[in-house]
Amino acid sequence: QTSSFSSTDKRQPLLGWLQNNMSVARQRLSRHEPIRLETERLQGEICYKYELEDILWDCGWETVHRRGVVEAFHALVLQYPEVQKIIKGRTIVFGKNSGVSISGQIILYSGEVRNNWLNVIKTTPDSDKLLLSLPMWQKTLSQSLRDIQIVTDPANIVMVGDHRIGLRQLVTSLGDYKTRRSLPSSWPEDMSYFKLGIESDASALMISPEGVFIIPASTPGFLIVDFISKGMSEAMLRMSEAASMVVEEAFLVSACINELGLIQLDRDDSISTKHMVSCC
Question: Most buried among 11, 36, 73, 140, by the most CB within 10 A?
């Protein structure tokens, strides 16, 4: 029986959609498999030859485009051998930004021209110096809030420069606040159970599904303290729920893979663990 739903209609049953699209998925996988394998071979060759830690992807480019990006990077390294000592032992990530991440990865925007990549790689030593200063700023911010944990979202790539600016802004804001008043007496002496994440000014004050206090870098000190004071109970509740959700998600993903005969089942970064559990 012909389905009355279009291929992109979200109202259709999942199993029906999978059944209707299995042949299309197999055809596309088969068509791109040689290119994917060749791209992986070239990545492995580059990593071995120039002693890279790894080459990763943080973008949704198609297989054919990825091969072109890897070939362009290889040509760059061959043309400018002076960058080889800079990339040695590093992880290269082709993503949506350019620079050095707080984990020390060299991020290259896959849509840029090679000259921009060259500039990013050559300025990596400068970014490394900024990277060395981050622990000091993180510790200062943590201590200003009674040893609260300073965390970043592992699903997002955070640039060294952006993170340093955010840390400095919050340290300054809280420093100004504490010159005029003390932290609330209702706060525990040790806040290390709680977590704080820094976001851009475009973000809003909120508590993540994992119970992390999300604070925009430009937030005044009094708002930070007030928000944390009012949100402690909710943050504790969400942290507890998130811990159990992670275990449940792993179980359900494994069950779906086995039941549907999948090779793998991934969760997009924009989907929370709670939504993944609901879907599975």
Answer: 73
One pLDDT digit (tens) per residue for the chain, 280 residues = 445 666 666 677 777 777 788 888 788 777 777 888 888 899 999 999 999 999 998 876 676 788 889 999 999 999 999 999 999 999 999 988 899 999 999 999 987 778 899 999 999 999 999 999 999 999 999 999 999 999 998 888 999 999 999 999 999 999 999 999 999 999 999 999 999 999 988 889 999 989 999 999 999 999 999 999 999 999 999 999 888 888 888 888 888 888 878 888 888 777 778 888 888 7
Contact between 229 and 187 (Cβ < 8 Å): yes
Gap between the Cα atoms of 36 and 170, Å rounded: 44
CB-count burial class (<10 Å; 0-12, 13-18, 19+) for 11? exposed
In whole angstroms, what is the distance from residue 185 CA to residue 235 CA?
19
* pTM of the predicted protein model: 0.80
